């Protein structure tokens, strides 16, 4: 098998409209497709960033809570590259989203931090130049 690239990350949210607003209005993802699957009482929202399909956002009735944060088994976090981490943090603050203090990657020397989506999914922003 030869994997070419990451295709997408799937996220199950507890409040579909709230998460839809967060990923589109706050993080700037574009809606590529949205469907309601009546048989599952579930929405599926396909989101892209800069023309690259990245996230499938799902709603399901009564999904279980994440057992712990952030070291639960499974997806630990998702990470997005940004050019200016301080500017990105200021933008998040303008939307009443709190980021952790900036950390420095001990191996690359690059800056990064974490904040949460509406369901407390940890999201990392990592400064790429």
From TrEMBL:
Domain VOC: 5-128
Keywords: Metal-binding
CDD domains assigned: VOC_Bs_YwkD_like
Superkingdom of the organism of origin: Bacteria
NCBIfam families linked to this entry: PRK11478.1
Name this polypeptide is given: VOC family protein
Lineage summary: Bacteria, Pseudomonadati, Bacteroidota, Chitinophagia, Chitinophagales
């Amino acid at each position: 098998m030869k994997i070419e690239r990451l295709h997408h990350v799937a996220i199950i949210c507890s409040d579909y409209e709230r998460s839809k607003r967060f990923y589109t209005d706050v993080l700037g993802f574009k809606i590529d497709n949205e469907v309601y699957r009546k048989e599952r009482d579930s929405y599926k929202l396909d989101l892209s960033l800069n023309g690259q399909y990245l996230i499938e956002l799902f709603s399901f009735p009564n999904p279980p809570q994440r057992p712990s944060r952030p070291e639960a088994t499974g997806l630990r976090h998702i990470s997005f590259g940004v050019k200016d981490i301080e500017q990105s943090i200021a933008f998040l603050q303008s939307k009443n989203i709190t980021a952790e203090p900036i950390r420095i990657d001990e191996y690359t020397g690059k800056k990064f931090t974490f904040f949460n989506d509406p369901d407390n999914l940890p999201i990392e922003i990592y400064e790429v130049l």
